[in-house]
Write a structure and sequence with these properties.
alpha+beta
Length: 259
């Protein structure tokens, strides 16, 4: 089953990558589009379809791109340094403190993707915290009395008065939500429940945890097979990084369609 999921993801990635750079025959170089607009693009674009031509295709409506990540200055607890560090400083292979039903565990970072441009974000001020928490609108946070009774909730659906789950002790009440602009970074660990500053626990995923876990299975397998150094080298490679930005879009499209 895992092998089938891996093969499926690879096929989709290759097909999407090919489609993203396809230019009609006879198009002159100066007329080639510099940045094809797709579903998920902030500036909009035409409706379209994704899939494997001749096998299956799914039509989609262009609803505008939403980047699904943490604020790049979010403080995460580093098990390597025994202190909180900013998300943009975390590297593949680092170990971060995460939460399980039985307590905290350190978990390796197998994927990191930084968005180059400033993006729409939501800034949350919580009762009893030192600084606001920043997420994209589709990032998943946990509302509830404790971790075992958590309710995964999109950041855009959180309201003043809701209480975010913490590592221990009482949940922290949301006292304000402010739209803002900021940098975003996607950091994924094998155990996806990240501990933030002040003990708040949030998901590493956006939109849907189960679907994201399936879509990122190839990256977990690559890390387990080749290790942190090679995985980081591949992801940071200029050519692969450009491809990864297209794949990141299609991952978002796929999850939006399925969910």
């Amino acid at each position: 089953m895992k092998l089938a999921i891996l093969i499926f993801n690879i096929l989709l990635t290759l097909v999407f990558a090919k489609q993203s750079v396809r230019v009609p025959r006879g198009t002159k170089s100066k007329d080639k589009p510099k940045n094809r607009r797709l579903k998920g693009d902030n500036k909009g674009g035409k409706d379209g379809k994704i899939g494997i031509p001749g096998v299956f295709e799914i039509k989609y409506k262009n609803r505008g791109h939403r980047k699904n990540c943490l604020g790049d200055d979010t403080l995460l607890y580093s098990c390597d340094d025994n202190e909180f560090v900013e998300a943009n400083e975390v590297q593949i292979g680092n170990s971060l403190r995460t939460m399980t039903p039985h307590g905290t565990v350190c978990s390796d970072v197998y994927y990191k993707f930084s968005h180059l441009e400033q993006s729409d974000t939501l800034s949350f001020t919580l009762n009893g915290t030192e600084s606001p928490l920043v997420f994209s609108d589709l990032h998943i946070v946990y509302i509830g009395r404790n971790f075992n009774e958590r309710s995964p909730t999109l950041a855009k659906d959180v309201r003043i008065g809701d209480k975010l789950v913490t590592k221990e002790g009482p949940s922290k009440e949301v006292i304000s939500v402010t739209p803002t602009m900021g940098g975003l970074v996607n950091i994924l660990t094998f155990n996806p429940h990240l501990e933030l500053k002040d003990g708040v626990i949030v998901s590493g995923y956006s939109i849907d945890e189960t679907l994201n876990s399936i879509l990122f299975a190839p990256f977990r397998m690559m890390y387990r097979t080749f290790g942190a150094k090679y995985t980081n080298y591949i992801i940071e490679n200029t050519t692969f990084n450009a491809l990864l930005r297209e794949v990141d879009r299609y991952f978002s499209y796929s999850i939006n369609i399925i969910s």
